[in-house]
Amino acid sequence: MNRQNGERSKLPGTVVRLSVFLFASLLVPASFAQTKLNSHYDTDGARVVVNFPAFRIYLYHGNELLKSYPVGVGMDDFKPIFGEMLATEIVYNPSWSPTGSAWSRGHKATGPNAPGNPLGKVKLPLYGLYLIHGGAAASNMGHAVSHGCVRMMNPDALDLMRRILQIQNGDSGLAQARRGERISGRSVPIKLEKPVVVDFRYDTVAINDGRVHVYPDIYNFGVDRQQALDSALSESGVKWDALPEKKQDQISEALKRSSRQAQTIALTEDKSATNRKRGVYVTSH
Question: Would you kindly state where each structural domain of the chain is located, as residue ranges?
């Protein structure tokens, strides 16, 4: 319950055309290594990466990872368009109206800061009616539960938007964020001086922090996990033949499992973690 009727993001025409192009490739999402960010947009500013199988948002400043947050994503019938887009504004205290879709019938419009507003305290409009927004329950995190949008808990959403504004708008952006957080009873749109790059990704294998992360194929695209691993290794500069045989076996076993749980394999032995079995850590989502 998180699309907003009649509030389409003001994106450049090139981005709209990009979205149409990306839609054609929806059923065959690319898989990239999160360690190295390849972008169609040259930017030293903020970049927001949403990895759907990981159920996480990653905020980068240039290529430096600043912070990550748990999210809830769209249900199987509400898959997004995967790829890059530009967002041009942040809206504090967004209102919400039923979209006219079957799922929203019988629901009443809710104003800024109104109880039950599904958008929460803040939203980042993307393309069409899709948003990154607050208002999510903790139980939404790590699940495909929304009608297309990316859901965050309010404290995380506010923190993310505050950081984006500070990067894109400088000191005035931080003041704008604090003002937007204080005001209640009306919506507060804030234009980004530099559009922020938002990348919707479908990485079932990612390498970062010295670990290989294997995520479920949440939309059952039939992703070739071996190919995803090869891409992740190539992008991160990790050589498969240089890994100990034990680590190769652990990674290969993780790729074969059909579990709906994420798996993490350390690339080096952590001798202090005696309670970790075979170096494979399972994370529930």
Answer: 13-201, 205-283
- pLDDT bucket at 59, cuts 50 / 70 / 90: very high
Nearest one of 100, 156, 97 to 124, comparing CA atoms? 156
pLDDT at 42 over 50: yes
Contact 92, 133 (CB under 8 A): no
Q: What is the reported pLDDT for 101?
A: 61
Q: Is the pTM of this model over 0.90?
A: no
CATH of domain 13-201: 2.40.440.10
Query: Beta partners for 280?
Result: 265
